[in-house]
Amino acid sequence: MLVALESYAAYLAKGARVGDNLPGRGYLKLAKPPELDVARGEQVYAAKCAVCHGGGGEGQVTADGDVVFPPLWGSRSYNWGAGMSSVTNAAGFIKANMPLSQGGTLNDEDVWAVAAYIDSRERPQDPRFSGSVAETRKAHHDSDYDFYGKMVDGRLLGENSPPSGTVPR
Ligand code: HEC
Description:
- The protein is mainly α.
- It contains six helices and four strands, in the order αααββαααββ.
- The protein has one domain: Cytochrome c-like domain (Cytochrome Bc1 Complex, Chain D, domain 2, Orthogonal Bundle), CATH 1.10.760.
- Heme C (HEC) binds near residues 48 and 114.
């Protein structure tokens, strides 16, 4: 089953390599929605993204550590200092490029929702972390479209972030 799933994902991914500069890396700008629907994003993620990026956002990494599909949250993901951790940026990237080779197929509502879902999960600490989540939020994440330093599912994001820079990526 795992082999079948991986070859399906590899088939979908044909023609793109991790690290290639996909069109849209410069982050498309989408009109902002009145609110971010994380619950809806969870459903979009399960239906359209989990096949490659994993049910827990862990992606697919070979035994040698080569990234087949990048993790989207957790200890091996991009960190809280990355542009992608801003929901606005992630939405622009996803709209243009995801699901892989099917950019432009998701409507904006689903794009914002899935970007919010991904960017409201824990990930490695912001390299600019001052020692205080509140201060770091104020200095670098002061936006309604940024979940760092917000409470999600009873946890303060940023408080228990794994250290950044421990996984070469
Ligand atoms: C067929 C496999 C596949 C599917 C399905 C897919 N992705 Fe991706 N995704 C990739 C690959 C491969 C990359 C790496 C592309 C690159 O960096 O050049 C990627 C990169 C990303 C990145 C950037 C990660 C980083 O570290 O910069 C995000 C965010 C992302 N995908 C979100 C999504 C979302 C949201 C969905 C569902 C709507 C989705 N993907 C569906 C294969 C997939």
